[in-house]
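Message: I would value a second opinion on how I read folds in token form. Give me a protein, with the fold worked out from its sequence. Write it directly below this note and I will take it from there.
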Amino acid sequence: MRYPPLSMLLHGALIACALALTGCSGTDAEAAKDVPASLTVTVTRPQQLSWPQQLSANGTLQPWQEVVISAETGPYRIASLNADVGSRVRQGQVLATLAREALLAERARLQAAVAEAQANLVKANSDVERARQIGDSGALSAQQIQSYRVTQQTSQATLAAARAQVRGADVQLGQANVRAADDGVVSSRTALLGKVVNAGDEMFRLVRQGIIEWQAELDSRQIAAVRAGQVARVTLPGGQSVSGTVRLVSPTLTSTTSRGIVYVRLPANSPARSGMYGSGVIEVGAGPVLTVPDSAIVLRDGKSYAYLLGKDNRVKETVVTAGQRRDGRVAVSGIAADAQVVAAGSAFLSDGVTVRVTRSAAK
């Protein structure tokens, strides 16, 4: 018996394998086409809502106002310190005291001068009274009588001046108690125990009433839409969100950056601290926005995607622009208002996948 050449056998085997693969791929394709949907999703239509329009901004947090506490008299030694950085103080509270020995000695000297002036006035009054009693007897000349009266007036003025000097000494004694000019939080202390300070030397600084402001920077187009009283929210470095209100809009822009400052007043007991840097939004009025549930948006590779239901229950992956979020919804653009959007289960989908839609959720 003669066998066919080996080359012919190999050629026939290759042809048979090719035919088998062709048949298999065709069968697999048909089978894949007929595979039933394995994922069940819910769909919804976008909702048109009226939401506050927001402007994003960044800026530093600074005190609403700072209060400088200085020595009002001097030079005197600091005798005691009753407050430190971070202390919450009330208006009129004694923050430090100055040495009072020299002031007390000066007040005693002035009180002695008052006593002397009172004695001189008593003598002058007595002379004037004696001159009045003598009258026209001729015992005293008119010039002498007039001299008594002038001395009386001079003694009265001297006594008034001495009493005023005592009151001045009392004021200085009061100034030896360095007091807080308003409620607030001590932000800095330059006073040192034992240091000799002069009148006008700074000793403390306060954040007035403990109020911190967010100084948000906006460009000329944005700042034109901001008004006092509008609501703002700032996110602090620690992740806390603090709400406040616009107190003041800067009337001018910087010449270098053409940006202005919006001063947002934050609550007094907020976790905001002076020197922090925060980012946030300012609500500048309501406007219509197209919204979908938060669960309808999938983030991949730095982009936002939504899945739209198409023909034959196949989904289409669509890039959207996601905006502000509130109440479990997100503002989007890039889809039609009548689109059917997958509201739940989006994270498990890919483009072109066939899904099963629950009737109760379909709209």
The longest strand covers residues 47-63. Residues 70-206 form one domain. Residues 1-35 have pLDDT under 50 and may be disordered. The CA atoms of residues 219 and 259 lie 4 Å apart.
